[in-house]
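Justification of computing resources. Each target in the renewal requires a structure prediction run like the one illustrated here; the chain below, 164 residues long, is used simply to show the kind of job we budget for.
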Amino acid sequence: MSGQDLGGELKKALCETRDSMEEILNEARTKLEKLGASKFINEGVGVLAAGINIYANLFIRTGMEDRQTLDAAVGKSNHAVREAGSRLYDIEDEWNEFVGEIEISESQKGGSLISAGADIPTHIKLKHISLAGTEATGSETTLGELLARTRHPLTLLVLNRHFA
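Resulting structure tokens:
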């Protein structure tokens, strides 16, 4: 396959990823408006989980192993691919702004934000989110219960607010 074919495929994958992520973001905004911030966090945030599959598909389609490799490939590509990458990065910025606004709204209500290195309250409720759908499904547990079930002395818990 020629470099032009590869560039065309990369551009197509970036554009489709951007469109899908924008669709999910718009759905999340609609749910936020309908539910309000607190209820959205508890009941509607599952819609954002669809972004995991979208990015997984982007990496599979492009053959890239990680974000750094993808960014490097976009940067070395022709103008059309770089422009498609820039549009994807723009929607990622919109995601960050969306989540940031929710965080600010909730912190102003007296809630506390968790930051790197902080002790996490073990009473936090977690829901299983199916990657096949966009809604929270399955069982609910607390962070403390989840940690008590593990046999490992250390647990790395990653809470995603952005799926890139």
